[in-house]
Amino acid sequence: MTEYLSIFEYQFFRHAIAAAILTSILAAMVGTYIVSRKIVFIGGGITHASFGGIGMAYFFGLNPFAGAALFGILTAVGIEWVSQKGRVREDSAIAILWSLGMALGIIFVFMTPGYTPNLMGFLFGNILSVGRAELQLLIIFCILIILLFTVYYRPVLYTAFDPEFARIKGIPVARYRYLMSVVMALAIVISIRTVGIILVLSVFTIPQITAMLFTRNFARIIPLAALWGISGSVIGLMASYTLDIPSGAAIIFFLTLQYLTVRLIIGLRNIIRRKTF
Questions:
Q1: Integer CA distances (angstroms), 10 to 15, 134, 241, in order
Q2: Per the count of CB atoms within 10 A, which of 76, 128, 146, 259 is most buried?
Q3: Buried-exposed string 228-250: b where 16+ CB fall within 10 A, e elsewhere
């Protein structure tokens, strides 16, 4: 036990724990919207397309996360526009932007003069390198999203589940969907540092799916997803320290293990109940 507690003496690990908790809270809110609206594939498109922004930012000497954010927002808004206009099938548009973003990222990184940057941190995350500035950004964004969901909870809920009813109520559906597209893109890009491009979507889906084993109420899924996300992330970080394995992969492994364990327990409980009655 003393060995585990001693790791908290290091500032980098305290930052990593704080980042895991904040990312879990952020993902609980935005991820619940993504899962409830059944647009997980769109989240994947935004995630991978943002790699194009990272590559272009490297090439032009800019902040890679700023490039990812810009590319992610453009992709999210573009997918939403395509889905509303219906000129191209939504899944086709996502596949095109997904592939284009990854291709552009690789091309521009390859063309960047000098030493080729290490992309492992972007692809698989490096939560142990999160600094004070990134924690402050996470805190600010979490507060903004909490305010957004508090003030505009019903319009966001109506436009996600029943856009026709929302239009009858006079809610500007397109405006809120574009707003949530931007929020999704920014939330995903900010979370890339925690678990990376390849794994980030899991943080926005697995805790929510676990929470949905207990309730289908949107407002109740969010806190439950936050709890499952925090527990899985902290356990994953501790396991990565103990076993000396990548932290991002460890977090996703334990988030998945939580889901499978809970589903198994619920399934066994239902079997016992049926046999009893």
A1: 9, 17, 12
A2: 76
A3: bbbbbbbbbbbbbbeeeebbbbb
CATH 1.10.3720.10 given to domain 15-276: no
Taking the CA of residue 241 as centre, how many other CA atoms within 13 Å lie in the half-sphere pointing to its CB? 19
In sequence order, what E strands does 45-185 have? none
Domain chopping of the chain, boundaries: 15-276
Q: What is the pLDDT of residue 39?
A: 81
CA angle 23, 26, 27 (to 5 degrees): 85
- Of all residues in the chain, the percent with pLDDT exceeding 90 is 36
pLDDT at 183: 94
Give the three-class secondary structure for 61.
coil
Distance CA(253)–CA(247), nearest Å, equals 10
- Nearest of 157, 155, 154, 151 to residue 171 by alpha carbon: 155
C-alpha to C-alpha distance for 4 and 14, rounded to whole angstroms:
12
**In contact, 163 and 151? CB cutoff 8 Å:** no
Which residue has tokens 């600094």?
131
Encoding tokens for residue 94? 């996502």
Q: What is the pLDDT of residue 197?
A: 81
Residue 102: pLDDT over 80: yes
Q: Residue 218 corresponds to which amino acid?
A: F
- Rounded (5°) CA angle 86-43-68: 105
- In order of 187, 216, 224, 230, the CA distances from 212 in angstroms are 21, 6, 9, 16
